[in-house]
Write a structure and sequence with these properties.
The protein contains 15 helices and 9 strands. The chain is α/β, with parallel strands linked by helices. The strands form 2 sheets. A 6-stranded parallel sheet has the order 3-2-1-4-5-6, with helices on both faces. α13 packs antiparallel against α14.
Length: 304
């Protein structure tokens, strides 16, 4: 019997991908560009057209996708969407096999993750790996995402055909749910950073400093960050397309942080204050849930 090379294993693994939205679509594009066999499904079929043209197979349903693939990746909006696809109308769980692996790249609740993983194991024996990502759309396109993994170490190895294409680093944070908890910490920092960044730029404008020069001026110092270099110029210049991160997504993520913190007795005064501002942004006539986070500056400008 001839030896099986690692490249042969990668090519043989059939990857399913559910959720081709803002960050899901570039992930699929990256998988395809790396030669992976990818089958996709999305609630809005029109979002799949360009990916099918690029070589992806289109499944008629999540259940059909599960039957034809070995690893099923999820990249969905929130906890409710994941639950619906897996156990609700999507009926993914009914078609998964005992040797199937679900890799959830979404950012959802860690407690719900543990519950769904246990339910899936009982129902069909399939494994669950929570693997939320950080890096945004640019990193998804470049294959340089950061992955926070929760689950069995063996499943991280099994998911190598996905991670080797999408990520520069995968950190095993612990058991199921640990990846999602880590992503909550990540989003806590990013969301609060974006809000104070909007305040800082609006303050600079009001005080007579050219805010558009601040990201470059602060680069390399203690105040520097990727969000500052990505969103800072957009905020200062009023650029909000293409959308890189939705206001509603950040609100959802830090709302979850505040809830989880209360459950474990952690004190989050700064995050709670930021959450109040995100809620105000959602209600703002010129911002709203679907707007890019660069519009957050509009919330603080009008109070200056």
């Amino acid at each position: 019997m001839s030896a099986t090379h690692s490249s042969d294993v990668v090519e043989a693994v059939r990857i399913g991908f559910i959720g081709t939205g803002l960050i899901g679509a570039p992930m699929v594009e990256r998988l395809l560009s790396c030669g992976r066999d990818v089958t996709i499904w999305n609630r809005s079929p029109e979002k799949c057209a360009s990916l099918v043209a690029a070589g992806a197979h289109l499944a008629e349903s999540p259940a059909a996708l599960a039957r034809d693939t070995d690893i099923v990746c999820l990249c969905l909006t929130d906890t409710a969407a994941v639950q619906d696809v897996v156990f609700g109308d999507g009926k993914l769980a009914t078609a998964l096999r005992e040797d199937s692996l679900v890799v959830d790249l979404s950012s959802i609740a860690p407690d719900a993750t543990r519950e769904m993983a246990a339910r899936l194991a009982t129902q069909c024996g399939a494994s669950w790996l929570d693997a939320p990502v950080s890096g945004g759309v640019p990193a998804a396109r470049a294959g340089t995402l950061i992955v926070f993994a929760g689950g069995d170490a063996d499943d991280i190895v099994r998911a190598a055909p996905v991670f080797s294409a999408l990520a520069q680093r995968v950190t095993h944070m612990g058991g199921r749910g640990a990846g999602q908890l880590t992503k909550s910490c990540n989003q806590q920092l990013v969301a609060c950073n974006l809000m104070v960044m909007a305040e800082m730029l609006a303050f600079a404008e009001r005080a007579g400093v050219d805010a558009s020069r601040l990201p470059a001026a602060l680069a390399g110092g203690f105040a520097d960050s990727l969000p500052l270099q990505i969103f800072g110029p957009r905020m200062a210049s009023g650029i909000d397309t293409p959308r890189l991160g939705a206001v509603g997504t950040f609100r959802k993520d830090i709302e979850q942080v505040v809830r989880l913190a209360a459950e474990v007795g952690a004190h989050t005064p700064v995050t709670s204050a930021a959450l109040a501002q995100y809620r105000a942004a959602l209600a703002h006539a010129d911002i709203g849930a679907d707007a890019d986070a660069s519009r957050l500056i509009r919330l603080v400008r009008e109070h200056a």
